[in-house]
């Protein structure tokens, strides 16, 4: 029973859900039953009119139903999840690489300038999605710019404005480690700053950086969701003034949620709930993976505490004393 309770179910659940999401992102367009341009046409079957919007589970060809114009929700999700994961992971890789590199070196300074700390405190109060909104709003709606250019534009801006927060977190963590005794010993032995950063400080932070990396993916997805509520969809927004509707060009998951927001108070609320549930599953999957890894690393440090403290406990070996054999 104790062995069963010690199993890290959070980690295994997070790994399983994340693996499924990655599989859908890679093979989603190939297993989608329809393209994003195919629509359900009105037909008569057994005296009944079958036409959009089609509710979920009413037809095997459209398992999650269709929107008001007959587009398959399941196919749009399979096409859009690739953009959601690839964009969020790409932004996280860029900002974590740049922020961790700068944060490690700034954290090893003996005294951090006051203006850096003041900038970090001020930047932490700025809503990042507002900055993205003002940059993307003029060019996203009915834009003549290619979707991939808009995606690249979003990746660059989102990465740049997110780097200061990464620098602040890594700087504080590396500064605590830099004050350790083993760092002073390394400096006494003549270790250079580069060696101290990459051979002493970074190994102490690699687990924390991995957990931070996964949580930053969730934060990027949250930013995409906030922009979607403002009708700014990643990759471009189509606005039709005759019907006053906004559509996502790339069909990324946050964009599907934002474009279906008006359906919440109608009989077609499932058009909103289907992508919204998937967006919650993506967020929960990465959160479970991060918490599971955190629990795994903590249990490892409990078994081998010298890995974290850099001090290996001195265990006294127990020796058996044998009586001397007397020569007869």
Which keywords apply here?
single chain; 328 residues; mainly alpha; MetI-like fold; two-stranded antiparallel sheet; 11 helices; 4 strands; elongated
Walk me through this protein's architecture.
The protein has helices spanning 2-5, 9-31, 73-107, 114-123, 128-140, 147-178, 181-188, 193-229, 253-259, 270-303, 306-309; strands at 43-45, 48-50, 237-240, 245-248. With 328 residues, the chain is mainly α. Residues 308-317 have low confidence and may be disordered. It is elongated and about 85 Å long. A hairpin with a 2-residue loop joins β1 and β2 (48-50). It has 11 helices and 4 strands, in the order ααββααααααββααα. The chain has a domain at 82-305: MetI-like fold, CATH 1.10.3720.10. The strands form 2 sheets. Strands 1-2 form a two-stranded antiparallel ribbon. Strands 3-4 form a two-stranded antiparallel ribbon.
Brief overview:
With 328 residues, this protein is mainly alpha-helical. Helices cover 63% and strands 4% of the residues.
Mean of the pLDDT scores? 84
Largest sheet: 2 strands, antiparallel
Order of helices and strands: HHEEHHHHHHEEHHH
Alpha-carbon distance between the two ends:
56 Å
CATH topology of the domain at 82-305: MetI-like fold
Number of strands: 4
**How many distinct helices?**
11
CATH class of the domain at 82-305: Mainly Alpha
Strand order of the largest sheet: 1-2
Percent helix among the residues? 55-70%
Poorly predicted runs are 308-317
Specify the overall morphology: elongated
Percentage of residues in DSSP E strands: under 5%
């Amino acid at each position: 029973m104790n062995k069963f309770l010690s199993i890290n179910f959070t980690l295994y659940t997070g790994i399983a859900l994340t693996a499924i999401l990655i599989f859908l992102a890679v093979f989603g367009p190939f297993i989608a039953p329809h393209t994003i341009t195919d629509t359900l046409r009105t037909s008569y079957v057994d005296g009944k009119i079958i036409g959009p919007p089609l509710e979920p589970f009413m037809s095997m060809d459209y398992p999650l139903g269709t929107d008001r114009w007959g587009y398959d929700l399941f196919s749009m999700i399979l096409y859009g999840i690739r953009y959601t994961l690839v964009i969020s992971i790409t932004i996280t890789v860029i900002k974590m690489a740049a922020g961790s590199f700068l944060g490690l070196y700034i954290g090893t300074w003996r005294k951090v300038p006051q203006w850096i700390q003041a900038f970090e405190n001020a930047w932490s109060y700025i809503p990042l999605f507002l900055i993205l909104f003002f940059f993307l709003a003029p060019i996203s709606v009915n834009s003549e710019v290619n979707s991939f250019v808009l995606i690249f534009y979003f990746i660059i801006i989102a990465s740049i404005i997110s780097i200061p927060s990464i620098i602040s977190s890594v700087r504080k963590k590396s500064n605590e480690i830099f004050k350790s005794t083993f760092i002073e010993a390394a400096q006494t032995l003549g270790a250079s700053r580069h060696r101290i950063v990459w051979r002493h400080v970074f190994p102490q932070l690699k687990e924390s950086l991995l957990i931070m990396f996964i949580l930053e993916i969730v934060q990027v997805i949250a930013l995409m969701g906030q922009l979607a509520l403002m009708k700014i969809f990643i990759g471009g927004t189509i606005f039709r003034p005759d019907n006053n509707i906004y559509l996502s060009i790339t069909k990324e998951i946050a964009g599907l949620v934002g474009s279906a927001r008006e359906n919440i108070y109608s009989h077609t609320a499932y058009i909103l709930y289907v992508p919204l549930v998937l967006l919650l599953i993506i967020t929960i999957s990465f959160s479970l993976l991060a918490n599971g890894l955190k629990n795994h690393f903590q249990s490892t440090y409990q078994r081998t505490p010298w890995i974290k403290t850099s001090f290996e406990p001195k265990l006294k070996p127990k020796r058996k004393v044998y009586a001397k054999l007397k020569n007869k």
